[in-house]
Design brief:
90 residues, alpha+beta, 2 helices, globular, plasmid
Amino acid sequence: MALVSIPSSLRRLTLGVSKVTARGETVHEVFADLEAHYPGLREQICDKTGAVRRFARIFLDGEDIQSMQGFDTPLEDSAQISIVMAISGG
């Protein structure tokens, strides 16, 4: 089971919880499990094509999944996933 860190901007979808667990053998499966438990989370992170939005990054054990196999990246049992959303201001 993966431990997923939720950024403060998305915690409204997880009832304020900052770390949740999700099942899956790949990053894709973990995000499918997250969506089943926290509807709307995936659409905040991914666009309509399923790609990670340009202002979001997903890290697996400290490494950006884009430099790995993207959503197809396989997971170890003790995987730690961090969702990072860019903050903008003016």
